[in-house]
Amino acid sequence: MNQKDEMHIFRELQEEVLDNLGALRVSLEQCKDYGMDDTDDELYNEILSLEEDTKSSESKLEISAVIQNAKSLEKKIEYYFETQGISSIGIEWPDIE
Predict the structure, then answer these.
(1) Residue-wise DSSP of 74-93
(2) Which of 14, 28, 33, 57 has the most CB atoms lying inside 10 A of its own CB?
(3) Is 80 exceeded by the pLDDT of residue 38?
(4) Domain-by-domain residue ranges, the chain?
């Protein structure tokens, strides 16, 4: 695979992660609508920070770190939904080779 193809695949990976982070942000906003307390917008700001980290990433290793942090946030959001008796759809995160 040439460098141009690798760069294209990497950019697609970044876009997928950004799309997932956007979905995570929407889920958080729904939680807040149901009364979840996001003190000082801590979780929201963390998602924004992960989006910036994704945009500025230059390697799959950096993207992988973003995904791990995002999965942790996703679990917090899913837990809140569960405590409210609301089912949620999990986000499918890309596998980094």
Answers:
(1) HHHHHHHHHHTT---PPP-P
(2) 28
(3) no
(4) 3-83
